[in-house]
Design a protein that fits this description.
CATH topology of the largest domain: pyruvate-formate lyase- activating enzyme
Radius of gyration: 22 Å
Number of helices: 15
CATH class of the largest domain: Alpha Beta
Distance between the termini: 10 Å
Number of domains: 2
Oligomer: single chain
Helix content: 25-40%
CATH superfamily of the largest domain: tm_1862 like domain
Number of strands: 19
Structural class: alpha/beta
Strand order of the largest sheet: 9-10-8-7-6-5-4-1-13
Largest sheet: 9 strands, mixed
CATH architecture of the largest domain: Alpha-Beta Horseshoe
Strand content: 15-25%
């Protein structure tokens, strides 16, 4: 990443030492530590405790794609027929209705996000029907943001018009890499021209906020190929860019076995790719947001970072101010004041649970005071690269002192200039920023429990 330094030997030594596998920390505790002790009854109680002073964020998961990208780590299913999608949508609508009915008080919705899979696999009529169903059952603020993940391949004008009519305000477009050779290796053929045309049409119908997702560390990628991709992306002028390191987890995603592991770049090559891409984006006018997002200076994400309001959730970095995240669909995760709830992942199990019980929660996690403290510390470090003892104590009292004993120990043991500590603020340095996941993991009270495996941290 930018400002890391130029001495190649030093870089390699730090990567070898600190680029160990670590969680991405889109939640704390992370999903592998969820358990069956949190069930549908707990979810009903937690829903009933939501009050009108709280704000809601809604996530809907559409777990279908019409092609299977071999790098994909999402919860999705490949289908060339529409009937599985058509069978799935009424079940999601039932869940939405049941969850809304469990709320004791009306809470306003500030953001909506549809992810997948490919939510744009929906027909225009189904897109409008699902959006209307949500608005009929929740109090969606007129100013609410509505974002959707888009596969631009096969996006016709009718689908784009439907998104605008449904009230979509931001489109997140998967690109990954524009190099034709890399696309062939990962089974995702997507031309620059097709992507450009879809973005043009989105802006034409009023969806002007565009995100683009990129990945480094894919088989076949090189410094020159990722630099060329960044140059093409900058032509499209998205307001935000997410730059993710490829997570090779074939023990979880068996289709990743289609990729030749011998072609995967090693940790050093991955680091070089991420650094050149970040340098080019920053030179092109984007601001670095946390460890892997970029935004134009006037984008709300950049404004949130400067104001200390940056958040992190299951969609990554966000300016979403909502107190509660409600997740709908197979594999969806919700976050309430009391903790996390996780729906069944297999679509058949999800559909049966909704048919039998109206809810599909199979596990989750009830937060304890120590969890909330550590979640706060990890989120602030991964968003701001710093945590203040004074601010932590104001929120958590003397319990925060134990965390800062850990911080002091990390600072004392630091031989590489990755952190600073002045007895009030524990700060990750520019040199340490690329290793923020590894540093955060030292505050993780669960990381050493069980046999959970994680992707590479750099």
């Amino acid at each position: 990443m930018p400002a890391f330094g130029t001495h190649r030997g030093m870089q390699h030594a730090l990567i070898e030492k600190h680029a160990k596998p670590a969680p991405r920390y889109t939640s704390y505790p992370t999903a592998p530590h969820f358990h069956e002790g949190v069930d549908r009854a707990a979810y009903r109680r937690w829903l009933a405790s939501i009050n009108a002073s709280q704000s809601l964020s809604l996530y809907v998961h559409i777990p279908y794609c019409d092609t299977l990208c071999w790098f994909c780590g999402c919860n999705t299913k490949y289908t060339r027929k529409y009937w599985p999608v058509a069978d799935y949508l009424p079940v999601v609508k039932t869940e939405i209705s049941k969850v809304a009915a469990h709320l004791a008080e009306t809470a306003g919705v500030q953001t909506i996000h549809w992810g997948g899979g490919s939510p744009t696999i929906l027909t225009p009529d189904d897109t409008l029907d699902l959006a209307t169903h949500i608005r009929d059952r929740f109090d969606v603020a007129p100013s609410a943001g509505f974002s959707i993940e888009i596969d631009p391949r096969g996006m016709g004008a009718d689908k784009i018009e439907a998104l605008a009519t449904a009230g979509v305000t931001r489109a997140s477009i998967g690109v990954q890499d524009f190099d034709a050779g890399v696309q062939m290796i990962i089974n995702r053929r997507q031309s620059f021209e097709e992507t450009k045309d879809v973005i043009f049409e989105l802006r034409r119908v009023g969806i002007e906020k565009i995100n683009i997702d990129l990945i480094y560390g894919l088989p076949g990628q090189t410094i020159s190929s990722v630099a060329a991709t960044v140059a093409k992306v900058q032509e499209l002028m998205p307001s935000r860019i997410a730059l993710f390191g490829y997570a090779h987890v074939p023990w979880m995603k068996t289709h990743q076995r289609m990729l030749d592991e011998a072609m995967l770049p090693d940790a050093h090559a991955r680091f070089e790719q991420s650094r050149i891409m970040a340098d080019l984006l920053c030179a092109g006018g984007y601001e670095l947001i946390g460890m892997d997002h970029f935004a134009l200076p006037d984008d709300p994400l950049s404004q949130a970072r400067r104001a200390g309001r940056l958040r992190r959730n299951f969609q990554g970095y966000t300016d979403d101010p909502a107190d509660v995240l409600l997740g709908f669909g197979a594999s969806a995760i919700g976050k309430l004041r009391e903790g996390y709830v996780h729906n069944a992942t297999p679509t058949a199990e999800y559909k049966k649970l909704i048919a039998d019980h109206g809810l599909a929660v199979v596990n989750g996690y009830a937060l304890k005071p120590d969890d909330e403290l550590r979640a706060y510390v990890i989120e602030r470090l991964i968003c701001d690269f710093a945590i203040s003892r004074q601010l932590a104590r104001a929120q958590f009292g003397a319990a925060a002192d134990e965390i800062f004993l850990i911080a002091g120990g990390i600072a004392r043991d630091d031989e590489d200039g990755l952190v600073d500590w002045d007895d009030d603020v524990f700060r990750i340095t520019k040199r340490g920023e690329p290793f923020v996941r590894s540093i955060c993991s030292q505050f993780d009270g669960y990381l050493e429990r069980g046999n959970v495996r994680h992707s590479m941290a750099v």
